[in-house]
Amino acid sequence: MDIRQRRTIRKYTQQPVSDELLNRLIEDASRTQTMGNLQLYSVVVTRSAAMKEMLAPAHFCQPMVTQAPVVLTICADFRRTSDWCLQRQASPGYDNALSFLNAATDALLFTQTFCCLAEEAGLGICFLGTTVYQPQAIIATLDLPELVFPVATLTVGWPAEHPDQTDRLPLQAIVHRETYSAFTPERIDACYSNRESLPENKHFVEVNNKETLAQVFTDVRYTRKDNEAMSEGLLAALTGQKFLREDALQGGTPKVVERRPDILECDVVRFQNNKERWVAFVGLLDGAPYEIFTGLQDDEEGIAIPKSVQKGFIVKHYDSDGQKHYDFQFVNKRGYKTTIEGLSERFNPKYWDYAKLISGVLRYRMPIDHVIRLISSLQLENDTINSWTAGVARVLKKYLPESITVDEEELESEK
Ligand SMILES: Cc1cc2nc3c(=O)[nH]c(=O)nc-3n(C[C@H](O)[C@H](O)[C@H](O)COP(=O)(O)O)c2cc1C
How many angstroms is it from 8 CA to the middle of ligand 1? Predict the structure, then answer.
């Protein structure tokens, strides 16, 4: 079918859609491009009347669900890929938001290809966005395991209607040349005036007792209240399916994450240690200090980084002999990425050991004021190290919550 002739079909004849045709369409649609060719999606085919009845409430009982011969639920799926990795001595790291987005992208691209092929074969389809409105009900009904999440539903059948085509916004509404150009009031008028003048839309405004078509969308069809309530359900379901973690902040205390992520954001904080200029790299997770590296700022032997650099990343990597290293990466003023290798090897092992202890305390999320008091109370064997701990305590003060202060006198008395 010519794409310019397509329309959504919501009424179907009782003529069955054969397994042979359906399988061919799904197989052909699987030629769609996907991330790393991993095909991060799966399709649950629903034909039984009982299962359609169970799915219908999740779709606000839209009649197509029970009336269509076939209902397809297309899921973002990292389960199969993760199982494959586990079975092949590979460690999958796909229980996160980025992986969900990647899998959802694959699933939706597949869905659209299927739609085009099905319409070309003469079938009628309707895409149900309600899939992501109450996903938990669909997850339970279809028995979806962790790392599988429904993102689209299609009702599929032979058309029993030939509705008028819907309008489209003009090209200038969707195309920007080279950079995004803001919408002036005149351009908004030019984009939407035709749509607003259509009799069916005028009728829509009238029966809903509204003044504008936009109000029908904001006040009736897709309201803030509904969007916010359904967003909560969506996040809860994504958490339940293990694509998102439990709230990063639990009661104001950052969550304990034992396995250090391979990359951590970090702040670069300069401090004075005796007469020397030192620098601390404070790795951050969920916005709170998670580890600290320190070193002499020195062009010859220590760390030389431009003064303007305040932030970067601490990257963990392993050598071919299994040795672990931490590098500091930053982007300089001209936009070039620079890496300073081996943060851990650059320093006097004694400082490194104390920094490791402090990092251990940070990793297990001891409140920062307690960490500062603890560090300040240490009585180490020489003045240089004592001056270093005082410097580190000062660095960490930057991360105290606004409501908590730790003054110098108090720290002195800790000694
Ligand atoms: C993300 C998305 C969600 C949709 N959800 C629904 C839905 O829940 N119910 C429905 O009847 N149509 C749904 N549709 C179909 C649209 O209403 C339809 O594509 C649009 O009005 C344009 O009409 P046309 O497809 O006939 O050109 C959805 C389409 C998309 C892409």
Answer: 7
